[in-house]
Design a protein that fits this description.
With about 180 residues, the protein is an alpha+beta fold. It is about 25% helix and about 40% strand. Strands 1, 2, 3, 4, 5, 6, 7 and 8 form an eight-stranded antiparallel beta sheet that branches. It starts with a strand and ends with a strand. The mean pLDDT is about 95.
Length: about 180
Amino acid sequence: MNIAVNIALIPRSAELLMSLSHQLCSEHFRLSQDAFPHVSLAMNFVNEGRVKEIADEIRHWEAIAIQCTQMVIEPSGSASNILLQVRQSNELRNLHEQAMSLLYNFRAHGADDASFVGDVSISTVNYVANFESYAFAQFSPHFTLGEAKTSELTDDFPKSLIADVALFQLGDRCTCAKRLG
């Protein structure tokens, strides 16, 4: 079976991001144990039997420091999401390109909504299938905090975080739903 995966940066300390999400975002979509805060480096569909190989490869990748720059509201379909943007750095861009290359080598064709954890929208399936169009020159690193319930944003967010590389199976809205490695 093919599954939808994300190589992502996971902050070592996520409490403030979780708190901001619960403060600023609707219950309909906000961070939780099933939607962990992350910065996506690469997404694709892979054969479930090859997950251990991918996890073994990224296990050796170093944690990095990331700088959060601003909170913004971005339209998304009929709602809007709150994003915490992350500053581009050479180290982050190189890690993104390395993750894209790795998943490209393991990509599998023939995935659908059963490739995800739980029920997903067709837009989620299409986003993962077309992730390369959001990558490389279009790479825009950010944390999605959730669906906005307010237009009043705060400057009280973590400016610097240490993040580790991890592998997840995706859920709806490309959430990191199940840690694989």
